[in-house]
Amino acid sequence: MTDSSGTYDVAVSFSGNQRDYVEQVVRACEGLGVVVFYDRDETVRLWGKNVITELRRVYGGVAVRHVIPFLSEDYIAGAYPMDEFYAAMTVSVRRGGDYILPVVMDDVEIPPELLNPAIIYLRAADHSPEELARLVARKVALSRAEGHEPREVADVVAEAPGPRLPRVAPVHFDPRGVLADAMTRVGQVLERHSRLLPDYGFACGVQASETSVQLVLAENGREVWNLALVWSRTVPDSLEVRLGPWPPAVDGIVTVHWDAGRRKGALRYGDGPVASALFAADEFAESLWHKVVDFIEEDRR
């Protein structure tokens, strides 16, 4: 649970199969005065909220000194644990230092693009939960002594000095580059989330390239629905979202607009009032995943 200031010393991230070990570590940490974010302790606070958004806020640096991912084969294959990990990695790159404290649960081979081979990690097999908790407590004590207070990333960015700049796009602004990056991110998110669909009776394949991303849903060996993101041939510097049985129909156009507040390009998707909001790449990718889920829920009614 949080302390009186509403902050955490550590947040644990893990797959469900590792819960027994992790919970023992959590309770031992609490006994040593370490303030831990642990999902089961936050049931009331999270009740009624968007759990994905809330967890991204926690693992993405809101009032947390360190994130401890318990890495395993299930973790790497799981959509939700990896979403937490990527949120933490984003903050780690911005903050630097030892924001992420990895613990490897088994003999899984961690891909170098996921965890730099130079990063020191611990193996759970070498430590009982109580021993690991004592190491966590010592690490937290060092962080407290060095003044590593939990802060939102936005606060860190705001502290950086800089002149006032025009609230217009710079001359080197590259909308096609923003769209290409968004397409890459959509492919990553859809591929990761789609691994969960066999539990719901659907086979799901995702193919991504520099020119398109396509998700195909099949049920009982029969292709039933498609989602495609492709470069538009009719609207310059834009993407088309296509949905439905093959061939999928155009659902909306994705264009890039300058977000003056963030000083970066943002995505606008749809027509009319639906297109009024600006999306970051991750938000756009999640909106497309929601369309996949909407189809499955409608199909099962």
TrEMBL record:
Residue stretches making up the TIR domain: 10-135
Entries under Pfam families matching the protein: TIR_2 (PF13676)
InterPro entries: TIR_dom (IPR000157), Toll_tir_struct_dom_sf (IPR035897)
Protein name: TIR domain-containing protein
Provenance organism: Amycolatopsis albidoflavus
